[in-house]
Please model this.
Amino acid sequence: MPFVRITLSTDRPEPTRAAVGEGVRRALVSAIGVPQDDRFQIIDAQPASAFHVDRHFLDGDRRDPVVVEIRLTSGRTRDMKLALYQTIVANLSEVGVRPDDVVILLQESEREDWSLGGGKMQLLDEELIRKYGWSPPEA
Model:
């Protein structure tokens, strides 16, 4: 159950913002096997002046950053993460986002670190997570 926060410029029109969110969701489904209906996103549009991102750090060419922060449970391999990054970039380039403008931050945590309402630890409920296409946590 990833939780995604996408921060981009208010200069990007609303349909593009929505398409960016959909592109990230599709990448999560295809690259790391997130269930199709598992969508928890906040799309936050900020004025361009709010972005203080080094344009050329590590040989980048960032002009209009789209910052994608993904929090998810741990367990993906390095290859899966790389596939996720590449798929996100490919999907966002289809809606007009330059590849160098896509900044992705991945944060992993354990299943007990999540409560999706009611003060419960839903991700530890094996019956519930199987119902939604997840695998139970390993012992």
In short: The mean pLDDT is 91. Strands lie at 3-9, 41-46, 66-73, 102-109.
